[in-house]
Design goal:
alpha/beta; binds magnesium ion; Rossmann fold; 10 strands; binds adenosine-5'-triphosphate; four-stranded antiparallel β-sheet; 10 helices
């Protein structure tokens, strides 16, 4: 771990259950400024819940989440609104408003955060659409967009207010290979151009290796592993190696003792 950089987000001892369904039981996680942290883990293990706890769309049962030196779990309302402006989320499935045009969708968070000048709003919408490679589609309705375009409009909306942190929930799921490459490229270029910190939740191992500076794996209700992507290949825990071996299966992961596989 890079001890020279103080984490900008810190989860400590977080517990969260829904009734008898224990999702987290003592989760610890640090996110370093400027990094792209990929959160891996099987379906239903709590990856989306983790992001929602950070934005306080869900409440922890116990434990602490500190973001930008503030305790999120007890943050009073006005400060919570500021936090949600600094941490933008690209939701699993984009979550665009179907009855609103692309422009209205992207302008929504700007208006919500008090940007009222219509000229400034329009200019910003045009700018972020350009950044995601979709200039000139302001008037279209979401129903007229492909899945890949919807994801990119969702991303344009997420970056409209210049967040410090972007949370991506399954940004490439369900996209064709060209759009997967596009989204991966956008995640990287936003990090490079805007210096944002990103948390990317994904099942897509190729994307994880493409965008991730560091991996964190949810395992048995906690973060069971954190490390650089290449460390997963030689990690002592078989469940880490099996997960990143993906479709290549358990046997292969176990049979190759020291795989010299390039990232
Ligand atoms: N609002 C909620 N109310 C009740 N249970 C919930 C709620 N949100 C999530 N859960 C439960 O919490 C667990 C973790 O859900 P979560 O959506 O975080 O999984 P995930 O790791 O994101 O899965 P996937 O990879 O399929 O998206 C699941 O058992 C889910 O049913
Ligand atoms: Mg999820």
């Amino acid at each position: 771990m890079d001890s020279a950089r103080e984490p900008i987000i810190r989860f400590r001892g977080v517990t969260k259950s829904f009734g008898r369904n224990v999702v987290f039981d003592g989760l610890d996680l640090d996110v370093l400024p400027g990094e792209t942290l990929v959160v891996l883990g099987g379906s239903g293990q709590g990856k989306s819940v983790l992001l929602k706890l950070l934005l306080r769309l869900l409440r922890v049962d116990s434990g602490s989440i500190v973001a930008f030196d503030e305790e999120v779990t007890t943050l009073p309302q006005p400060a919570l609104a500021v936090l949600r402006r600094r941490i933008a989320m690209l939701f699993q499935g984009s979550a665009l408003f179907d009855s609103m045009s692309v422009e209205e969708n992207i302008a929504y968070p700007l208006l919500e955060h008090g940007v009222r000048d219509p000229v400034a709003v329009r200019a910003r919408v045009g700018e972020v659409l350009g950044m995601v490679g979709l200039p000139g589609i302001e008037r279209l309705l979401p129903s007229a967009l492909s899945g890949g375009m919807r994801k990119r409009v969702g991303l344009a909306r997420a970056i409209a207010f210049q967040p410090d942190v972007i949370l991506y929930d399954e940004p490439t799921t369900g996209l064709d290979p060209i759009n997967v490459r596009r989204i991966n490229g956008l995640i990287r270029s936003l990090q490079a151009r805007l210096g944002v910190t990103s948390i990317v939740v994904t099942h897509d191992i190729d994307s994880a290796f493409t965008v991730g500076d560091r991996f964190a794996m949810v395992w048995e209700h906690r973060i069971g592993f954190t490390g650089r992507p290449e460390e997963t290949r030689t990690c002592p825990w078989p469940w880490v190696r099996e997960f990143v071996a993906g479709g290549r299966g358990v046997l292969e992961a176990d049979l190759v003792p020291d795989p010299q596989v390039g990232g």
